[in-house]
Amino acid sequence: MGKRIYFPVILMIAAGGLASSASAEGINCEKAQTPIEKAICADPDLHALDTRVATAYSRLLKELDPESAKALRSDQRWFNTAQELATEARDGRVEKEDISDSLQFRAKFLESIVARPASGLSGRWENAAGTITLDESPENRVTFDGNAADPQSARWLCEAGGEGPLVNGEAKIAVETDDGAWTITASRSGATLGLDEIPPSKDAASPPYCGFNGRFSGVYFQTRK
């Protein structure tokens, strides 16, 4: 299996939320309202980290193709929702170390995104929930290794691996479970990778390799190692 990434995500949520500016300009400190916004604006180090996040985000929005930029905006909103929910869970209390860790985590993710990845599925792909690794073989087979966690509440975790054929640019990866094989389809759209999950039967609910309501399905961005 590949690199495990969900533990940092969970720890940040539990510790105090995922702080990140909601726009490409960063936090407007003249209009700061939430506890995290006020904490960032009151601390030069945190404000510098927030600016770093905003700078990387703004650059990507300009470099990505329109559909991929739209997907990044959605990923950023998902990330910021996690911030708000986690802050509410702690009655608005935040700690500098927690905010610093989460800002650095987000900045590194944004800075590692490849705006114009090479064709094909191979590589490491990430979003606000998790990371997956795909490897194409010369025999047109694709191996899958993935980990994810709900970035809003950590109510579910996903961990799975499998392989399947590559046909016309789309991989169909079989993930064996006690209830039968789930199929994870992977295909490219611009700079992003889309994943979808197909159950072995119409009666299946959440994938057994995830917690309740957990999914790998979504849009991912290729990142540098």
Mind explaining what this structure looks like?
The longest helix has 24 residues, at 66-89. Strands 1-2-3-4-5-6-7-8 form an eight-stranded antiparallel beta barrel. Residues 1-22 have low confidence and may be disordered. It is globular. The protein has helices at residues 6-15, 35-42, 44-63, 66-89, 96-112; strands at 123-126, 130-136, 141-149, 157-167, 170-177, 180-189, 192-198, 218-223. The chain folds into two domains: 6-112, no CATH class; 123-223. It is 35% helix and 28% strand. It is built from five helices and eight strands, in the order H-H-H-H-H-E-E-E-E-E-E-E-E. The protein starts with 5 loop residues before the first helix and ends with a strand. Helix 2 packs across helix 3, helix 3 runs antiparallel to helix 4 and helix 3 (44-63) runs parallel beside helix 5. Strand 2 and strand 3 form a beta hairpin. The chain is α+β, with helices and mostly antiparallel strands.
Work out the radius of gyration.
Answer: 18 Å
Rounded mean pLDDT is 85
Helix content: 25-40%
CA distance, first residue to last residue: 16 Å
What general outline do the C-alpha atoms trace? Answer: globular
Structural class determined from secondary elements: alpha+beta
Compute the number of structural domains.
Answer: 2
Query: Strand percentage, roughly?
Result: 25-35%
Q: How would you spell out the order of helices and strands?
A: HHHHHEEEEEEEE
Number of helices: 5
- Strand ordering within the main sheet: 1-2-3-4-5-6-7-8
Please provide the count of β strands.
8
Uncertain parts: 1-22
Keywords: Plasmid, Signal
Protein name: Lysozyme inhibitor LprI family protein
Organism: Shinella oryzae
InterPro entries: LprI-like_N, Lysozyme_Inhibitor_LprI
